[in-house]
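Notes from the 1:1 (GR / supervisor)

We went over the backlog. Supervisor wanted to see one worked example end to end before approving the batch request, so GR pasted a single chain during the call. The sequence is below; no edits were made to it. Supervisor asked that the structure be written out right there so they could see what the output format looks like.
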Amino acid sequence: MGALSQSKLLQMLAAGDGATSAYEKGQRFEQAIRYALESIPGIEHYKSNILNISGSEEVDIAFFNNKSSKGVPFLDYLILAECKNWSNRVGATNIREFTTKLKHRAC
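Structure output shown during the call:
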């Protein structure tokens, strides 16, 4: 993907803010995150809505990092993201839940 357009990213985020349901807000935010990360050299979308084997944990989106020297070679090959478009700050419980998901996936 090409260079990041700040105006396009802001439009995508505004579309999420204007969404009428929490699900749609989350989807719009996921699109914005995907757009932003794929603008980094070497980062590619891998999968979305990834369930663990038992189906008890889901990660919103995963990216593959081919460690391009022009990108983020210092990060792991797999980058996982949760895409929540919340109006309040993320709490410690949410961070612990995401950290647990990362540990369960050896990330």
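Supervisor's comment: The helical segments are 6-17, 22-38, 92-104.
Batch request approved.
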